[in-house]
Prior knowledge:
The structure holds two protein chains of two kinds.
Chain A lengths: L1 H34 L18 H9 L2 H29 L7 H12 L7 H10 L6 H5 L6 H12 L3 H9 L4 H9 L4 H17 L2 H6 L8 H11 L4 H36 L1
Helix pairs in contact in A: 1-13, 2-13, 3-7, 3-10, 7-10, 7-13, 10-13, 12-13
Chain B lengths: L1 H12 L1 H23 L5 E7 L9 E6 L9 E4 L5 E4 L6 E7 L9 E4 L7 E2 L4 E3 L4
Parallel strand pairs in B: 1-7, 1-8
Antiparallel strand pairs in B: 1-4, 2-3, 2-5, 5-6
Amino acid sequence: MNRKILFRLMEHAILILVSVLIMIPIYWVLKTSLTGENLFNYPPSLIPKDPHIYYFVDVYYWIPFLRFFFNSVFVSFVVVVANLFFNSMAAYALRYSFPGKRLLILFYLSMMMIPFQTTIIPAFLLTKYMGLLNSYLGLAFPLASTIINIFVFKAAFDSIPGSLFDAAVMDGMKEQTILFKIYLPLAKPAIATNIILTFVWSWNNFIWPLIIISEKEMQTLPLGLSTFLSYFESTNGQMYAFVIMVISPIILVFFMNQRRFISGIISGAIKG
Amino acid sequence: MKLYKYFLEIIRHNVANSIVIILLITTLLGWLLYVELNTDGIITGRVVDEKGSPVPEARVFIREKTLNLIKPPLVTETDKEGKFIFRDMKIIEFLINAQKEGYETGEDVRYHLYFKGQHFSLPKPLILKKIP
């Protein structure tokens, strides 16, 4: 019994140590955003001296932060909604047996191996020909459906008993009703996983907005951050305050969906 | 009515998340209300000598500081009680000092505000030293 307790204590001690190690860079960014201390100060101080929020105020006023924030939120919202819609429909279609299904899945999987950077030029040309440069739709377009999330939905749908589907068909339900009224409510972890992953990808997206956005008022936060850094030098505090302002919505979304996100990922891992 | 019920249902199923969102929105609205009620842009303060006596008719210079430059100064004068006032100051960071004949030029004091147009009273008076 004592050995068991000792083992549990050691396990927790190691986990706490690893958590602290992972948290150190985030803590350092937060500390610098509140004090403006140089990152390379020696000896480094763990506790912030005279912390204040003036650097956040500077960022808020010296760049059009609200506009960038709105752009990021709106584009992420469009991406999340589009992903939920298209991915769930694609995964629902993959429930059926049809000729070439295995080939299609193989095709999906092989597409995942192609890095986005290699498809940037055709993606840009397509977006240009559709007249979507400098637009929200253009920003959201390449992330509107992501293959990994189709498989997350597929794993969740595969775990739903087929008898439920048969009963719904016998009751005369249409395909879209079965998907939106039966399958999706039973796949909440998959929805949470989709929301978090697509939100984070869209929020952090830098290269795509850099290529298709030339108007300042259409910039998203990561692009705004790079512009901010190119305008000003020696703005330690402001730079880190901006970083905190950019990453805090992602952290908030993650914490709010953390439990479902993890169960969604796990279900994808064992059934996918 | 249906939408209202739908939102209530969401809140009922996500109590912790709903509390966080409601707290965030309340804090944000409270802050915006506070800002709205305090944006008269008035900056006040006092100028005193080393003994703490008010210095009348001293010239007070205020210069807005941005991230990469300091703007030209705005000037006002202190009254009989050594008090001064600047109005419509839509700035967030500034340098302030006082000058008067017979006194050494005061040192620049730097202040940072929380929002543009904040009503602000200098926490410490500006001190002028008499030339011996």
